Amino acid sequence: MNTNWTRRQFFKTAGATAGAVVLGGGLAEFLAACASSPSTTAANNLEIFSWWTAGGEADGLAEMFNIYKKKYSGVNIINAAVAGGAGSNAKAVLTTRMQGGKPPDSFQVHAGQELISTWVKAGKMEPITSIWKSEGWDNVIPADLKTIVSSGSDVWSVPVNIHRGNALWVSAKAASAVSATTTNNLDNFLTALGAAKGLGVQAPLALGSKGNWQVTMLLENNIVAVGGADFYRGLFNGKSSWTDPNVKKALTYIKSMLNYVNTDHATLDWDQAAGRLQAGTSVATIMGDWAKGYFTANKWTANTDFTGIPSPGTGGTYMIVCDTFGLPKGAPDRDNAVNWIKVAGSKDGQAAFNPKKGSIPARTDVSADIFDPIAQRFIGEFKTAKLTPSLAHGSAAPEAFASGVNDEMGQFVQKKDVNATASNLAKLADQFLK
Ligand code: GAL
Description:
By secondary structure, the protein is an alpha/beta fold.
């Protein structure tokens, strides 16, 4: 049994049932109380923390739980998901738990800075290097992905998928106005939105900006569109400047897009915005391919009822959003957590999870045949695309910068002040990226 678990249980039990005895110093009495108290029976749990509660993402998670249950039938799985896209609520809950010494057994964490700066550098994780080796993941998970979940000589989590953050979803109803050819760059896209409006679609572009991160996605995608993948990457490695005119240009395009969005966007999350396409009040939305998981969970067929293409002007680039699972220090059910990590990294796990989730597998040996045609195209494009790490989804920059940008973009969507926002973004970069 894991010593951390024992210590945790000890204090938990002491607090809940036998505190007075223990505080009185009577270890023997405490142990006797333990023996007779049913609440102290070692529970065989697995608590998994994520923010996967919406259509598609919740279904993908359930698939992995099913595989786990088949293998480890005696384990009671606790789904500790906290609603709110991009972890807008979950991350705060997780931080409180981790700081309070009450980690879940394993949690969803983005590859890159969110994993490494937030948790590994703070000494809150156990390396999973030996699991990585024993499972043979070097043979099936690309080295680039391994790199973004590694630091020092250790690996710290296992990637379960790759989402594409730069995607535009269009309903079949919009086909005449907003199509692959009318959306290949930002100017054409704006013209297409105007045409859709002309045809009577009130708010052609669905937006849910609750939590602001969705507007950060518009920013990162538009920066790639106007400046290219290398320019975007340079913003995080010091080779490009946040004062470059491309940043203002990207913001100006968002400002123009805002002429076509639903007025209630601040009250909606991403899935509710996607729902507007199904309701027919909007015809397009820019969102990661978890939106595809949402549509298919809600009975739309890919390439029949809707289609998905790179967001305007970003063809040839893949904005990487990579979900992973790691092992927090002091995981109460450590052995069960290790088995969970193995399922998350397994071929069966990824084959069950990703088609529902909307993502493509992190493993290279999962057959593309089980995926919808949009995912199949994305799997092909991923192989040759320029890869860019998402800022909105934890990979590109430390949390302090990402959340500062989210706040700023929340202001921008209200005030639409390009100059003020550009200057505030540059200040944030000075503060957190140097
Ligand atoms: C992202 C996450 C995705 C998806 C999305 C919306 O941060 O990587 O898996 O869940 O948020 O909640």
